[in-house]
Amino acid sequence: MVTPIPPPSEARQYRAIGLVHGRYIASADQFTQGTLLTSEGKLLDAVLLGRVMSLVKKHIDLDEDHLWVVYPRTRQEEDNLHVQIMGVWEPQTLSSDESLPLDSTPVTSETKLAESGDKTAALANVQQGYFSIRGEVVYQSQDVEKYVIVKIRQAPRKDEDKPKFFKLKLLGIAGMRAVGHFWDLHVQLREDYLVIQESHDIGIIPTKKRRPPFSKGGPRRQSGQDQFNTGYRPPYKPKFQSDDAPPPERREPIAKPLKRKSSSEES
């Protein structure tokens, strides 16, 4: 059975994907940029990804609401949610290869979803407004406004490319000692916020040990063992008078002592 959000293909699979029910309103200047009017009456900034643009133009009535498959983003400056539309889920009106572009499962640089039958079983109770967020919690606030920041890694488009990261702000608490752990988060869209409904700690993310930086003051001083192995010779250090040097030679002749005559010799 094909679903818009299959279960993860591996335990620590990064992804951020969800379902939003609403109507896409394209801007007057550019069709791929616009807003998504949700069924709750909220406006979300939205962009159409290239792979879904032809599908929307040919088969989708933009005057009606649809169930959109989207990638969420939050701007760090304003914390407002915006989405990238990558597909539409309407199996009752569209064939499986039309409902999601290119493939029947939403495969992108962020989500390498399952392909086998057992891995494409439906997640329980997937509804409109549901989001699957999987990544590393890098910050968790427990002040008046409780929220977490999740870092999500995007899979590189090419093998030689370096992976990129982005961060999402979610309202709620993941769990105790959440920072530095990989979390599987079930999230619900409430108005224009993503709220954590359920969380699962997958485990701590190992950190790479950093090598100490080289000293900027000069070459590294050799250890005692290196001195013997490399024929190390200590640098020449000239000695000065203060370094236990022998006293300088006298150039003046030494005066001879005068011999006093005895009294018998004087008489």
Structure description:
With 267 residues, the protein is mostly beta strands. The protein has a single domain, classed as Nucleic acid-binding proteins (OB fold (Dihydrolipoamide Acetyltransferase, E2P), Beta Barrel), CATH 2.40.50. It is 9% helix and 35% strand. The protein contains four helices and ten strands. It has helices at residues 50-59, 96-99, 224-229, 263-266; strands at 15-26, 33-38, 43-48, 66-74, 81-88, 130-142, 146-154, 164-171, 181-190, 193-204. It has a five-stranded mixed beta barrel with strand order 1-2-3-5-4. A hairpin with a 6-residue loop joins strand 1 and strand 2. Residues 101-125 have low confidence and may be disordered.
Order of helices and strands: EEEHEEHEEEEEHH
Q: How many strand elements? A: 10
Average pLDDT taken over every residue: 78
User: Low-confidence runs (pLDDT<50, min 5 residues)?
Assistant: 101-125
Distance between the amino and carboxyl termini = 147 Å
- SS summary, helix count: 4
* Sheet with the most strands, sense and barrel status: 5 strands, mixed, barrel
- Gross CATH architecture: Beta Barrel
In total, the number of domains comes to 1
Name the strands of the widest sheet in spatial order. 1-2-3-5-4
Helical amount:
under 10%
